Amino acid sequence: MIGTAIILGLVTAALIVIEYAGGRNFITQPIMAGTVVGLLMGDLRTGIVIGATLELAFLGATSIGAVIPPDAMIGTILGTAFVINAGASAESAMVLALPVASLALIFKNFHYGYIVSLFQRRADKLAEQGDYRGIEILHWTCGLTMAAILGVLVTVSFAAGSDVMSDILNAIPEFVQTGLNVTIGLLPAIGFSMLARTMLSKSNIYIFICGFAVVAYSQLPILGVAIFGTVLAIILIKQEINKTETAAITEGGINDDF
């Protein structure tokens, strides 16, 4: 049990380092985190199912200014690990993921609010001294500190709460499980609606309506929808590029003395 907890902590830290050192490659998304945990704990299918479910649930949860959403990756890692360890249903992960994600947010806020500010003051002094190598080391140290904090959080949480969480999950009544199944069915709609609020506008709402109509009345499979959407996106992007190039050429021709 302790060994599994340590491995989960190391995986958490590694995912964070890869995510930010690699230039935001989205490896910390729930679908990826759940898959990795499922693979490590010998139940890849459950890991993928939980990861995909939580991916939809957190689909529209994005940072806006200083407002940081609950940490979906930590919630997914611990939720998946607890469920697989207890042999519970994938739906039970939602009971754990959201509170755990909110707990991780407290630690992230502490890091951003206090630890990062200390590093920033030190970086200002190093900048005044022209110590660019020191700033680079400080930058990496600050990021690794975040990875270490969340890695320790996952290790301690799983080691201390695995047996307790197993008992809690096994004690969930059948009617609650049924309610969770219904809730899981609603989460994709909630996550998509949150995402749509940030994307939809008067200039593109007609595309959404068109896509909805195509799916609803043609019974097109998901792969077909993805291909259709990709082609449409490429066409629209190329049209926008052509408009920009045409405008630039026209403007250049008017102002060109030759």
TrEMBL record:
Annotated compartments: Cell membrane
Keywords: Cell membrane, Membrane, Phosphotransferase system, Sugar transport, Transmembrane, Transmembrane helix, Transport
GO biological process: phosphoenolpyruvate-dependent sugar phosphotransferase system
Coiled-coil annotated residue ranges, if any: none
Transmembrane segments: 47-67, 96-116, 137-160, 180-198, 205-237
Main location: membrane
Keyword Cell membrane in annotation: yes
Membrane topology value: Multi-pass membrane protein
CC annotations in GO: plasma membrane
Pfam families per record: EII-Sor
InterPro entries, A to Z: GatZ_KbaZ_carbometab (IPR050303), PTS_IIC_man (IPR004700)
Name of the featured protein: PTS sugar transporter subunit IIC
Annotated organism of origin: Thomasclavelia ramosa
